[in-house]
Amino acid sequence: MAVIVDDMGSSMGELKELVSINIPLTFAVIPGLAKSKAVAEAAHTAGRQVMVHLPMEPQGYPKQKLEANGLLISQSEDEIVSRTVDLINGVPHAIGANNHMGSRFTEHEEKMIPVLNVLRDKGLFFIDSRTSPKSKGLAVAERLGVKSGTRNVFLDNEQDVAAIKRQLVAAAEMAKRKGGVIAICHPHAATIAALKEAMPELQAGGITFVPAAELVR
Q1: Which residues face 175 on adjacent strands?
Q2: Which residues pair with 153 in a beta bridge?
Q3: At what angle do helices 189-204 and 12-19 cross, to 10 degrees?
Q4: Distance between CA atoms of 72 and 94, rounded to whole angstroms?
Q5: Distance (Å, rounded) from C-alpha 86 to C-alpha 156?
Q6: Structure confidence by residue, pLDDT tens digits, 11-62
Q7: Which ranges constitute the DSSP H helices of 35-90?
Q8: How many CB atoms lie within 10 A of CB 134?
Q9: Measured between alpha carbons, how far is residue 14 from residues 3, 11, 114, 186 in Å?
């Protein structure tokens, strides 16, 4: 089972707490935040995998806010390519990428193609966060020969320690059935507390936690 922590890059404190759990969490860093590069460097130094958390246009944009460096469906192919390169360059040591938001952008195959071509050319894998059930991300990645996977579970839609622990247990049960599960969470206080409590217990119960790269194909 792989657990990806999204939305990293605004605080070093969150990273230190998460690294202290001593389980191979994977950190998806949003480029261009105050501590993006420092968080990526520190995560790498701690032996953790780093991904680029690519900001993509959500449904309801611009009312629904997005980072200024985000990928939009109004952008040309050239602009999407150059922005994607810049976003990757903003996260040192990244070996993969997933989408931040993107419930609109990922539904557009013709917009995902240039993004995924860049990832393929740079040797990065792609994990579809599946913020839309109509996302084309995984299908396009597979067609273009990009190593890829998809999010199976969101752990912390409900900000409550007990609820997050229940989601972790459900993800672990799914991993036992499927042989591999990708779960996504965020660096909220309740999430960090739940991970600290539940992950060692699940590990003791036979669940193997792996970096995200081990579950892409």
Answers
A1: none
A2: 183
A3: 20
A4: 22
A5: 29
A6: 999 999 999 999 999 999 999 999 999 999 999 999 999 999 999 999 999 9
A7: 36-45, 77-89
A8: 10
A9: 15, 6, 33, 10
The domain that holds 83 is classified in CATH as: 3.20.20.370
Number of domains in the chain: 1
pLDDT digits (tens, 9 = 90+) for 75-119: 999 999 999 999 999 999 999 999 999 999 999 999 999 999 999
Dig out the tokens for 178 from the structure. Answer: 């499927």
pTM above threshold 0.90: yes
Say if residues 20 and 190 touch (Cβ distance below 8 Å): no
Tokens 């913020």 sit on residue: 131
Q: Which of 198, 30, 52 is nearest to 126 (CA)?
A: 52
The residue range of the domain holding 211 is 2-215
Cβ contact 98:4 at 8 Å: yes
Strand order in the sheet with 94-101: 148-150, 125-128, 94-101, 50-56, 26-29, 2-8, 182-185, 153-154
- Nearest 5°: the CA angle 8, 214, 24 is 45
